[in-house]
């Protein structure tokens, strides 16, 4: 809360008294303590205010000073008013324009389409028909301008294809671990929820501390539950090993089944068909079982030794060759 007041604050209070205006800062849910609205290297203070008339003051539901961001030194002010206005809208009244696929290379074409003679004439007609004193034509003007943009986009851009996958299809839930309890499961959901909130508000120190404490508590509880589960399981196996072998192996098989990975959703034949389509091969590749060997391949090592080769090998033997049949054979094979 900013407790210091300068001359600008005094003038603002005097202005509110003279004009019977009301300050929302520090008076509503979301800013009951009067948070600072300006942060810089010199300090922090409350310099951004929201004023209302006395009649509108009682229609305010809550007033919030958002957390500071890196883009500006000033915080965003958010206010919500009480309203009972309801507008009935049917699906038939909503036009399904679709989504366009934007490409940077088409920016010049889109600009030219907006400057086309037809689009310019439509814009000029709207400008001539604007009535400053009549507020009932706002919806008509907005829809007409939107139609001009959509027509220009339909001439230059490509519509995105609608996905055949149902939008509200829920993902298949993973099976709960054998060691996990309901309290641990709820704690895991809380950790994930805090993590998503922290991604949107990274500068919130209190939220970061809460997330860190929750993660530590979750990891500690998960570790203790795992240890207790396996301790109980091992003691159960020790008691069943010699008494009831059937229950013993049944417990082991149940534990193994819980750790099995899901099989591949694609079969071998589907993989074969996939790579055939990549290679554009419609016909099957049939290789012969027996391939003919080349008759011109003459390798000297594929034939037995001749007498002349043995004699030449003996003459090349060195005099210091060790005695013994095995040593002589090795030396002979080396020289041959």
Automatic annotation (TrEMBL):
InterPro entries recorded: Endo/exonu/phosph_ase_sf
Entry-linked SUPFAM superfamilies: DNase I-like (SSF56219)
Protein name: Endonuclease/exonuclease/phosphatase domain-containing protein
């Amino acid at each position: 809360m900013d407790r210091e007041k300068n001359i600008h604050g005094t003038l603002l209070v005097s202005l509110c008294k003279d004009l019977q205006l009301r300050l929302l800062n520090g008076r509503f849910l979301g800013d009951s303590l009067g948070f600072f609205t300006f942060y810089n290297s010199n300090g922090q203070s409350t310099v951004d205010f929201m004023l209302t008339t006395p009649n509108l003051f009682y229609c305010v539901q809550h007033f919030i000073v958002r957390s500071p961001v890196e883009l500006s030194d000033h915080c965003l002010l958010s206010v919500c008013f009480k309203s009972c206005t309801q507008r009935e809208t049917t699906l038939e009244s909503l036009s399904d324009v679709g989504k366009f696929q934007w490409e940077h290379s088409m920016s010049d074409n889109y600009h030219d389409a907006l400057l086309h003679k037809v689009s310019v004439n439509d814009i000029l007609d709207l400008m001539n028909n604007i009535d400053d004193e009549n507020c009932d034509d706002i919806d008509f003007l907005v829809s007409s301008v939107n139609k001009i943009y959509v027509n220009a986009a339909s001439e230059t851009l490509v519509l995105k294809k609608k996905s055949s996958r149902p939008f509200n299809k829920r993902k298949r839930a993973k099976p709960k671990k054998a060691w996990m309890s309901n309290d641990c499961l709820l704690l895991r959901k809380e950790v994930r929820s805090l993590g998503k909130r922290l991604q949107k508000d990274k500068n919130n120190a209190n939220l970061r501390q809460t997330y860190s404490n929750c993660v530590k508590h979750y990891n500690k509880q998960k570790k203790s539950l795992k240890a207790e589960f396996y301790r109980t399981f091992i003691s159960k196996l020790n008691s069943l090993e010699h008494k009831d072998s059937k229950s013993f192996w049944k417990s082991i098989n149940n534990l193994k089944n819980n750790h099995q990975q899901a099989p591949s959703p694609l079969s071998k034949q589907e993989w074969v068909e996939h790579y055939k389509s990549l290679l554009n091969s419609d016909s099957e590749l049939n290789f012969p079982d027996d391939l003919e060997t080349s008759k011109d391949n003459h390798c000297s090592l594929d034939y037995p030794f001749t007498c002349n080769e043995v004699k030449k090998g003996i003459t090349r033997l060195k005099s210091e060759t060790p005695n013994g049949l095995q040593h002589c054979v090795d030396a002979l094979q080396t020289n041959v």
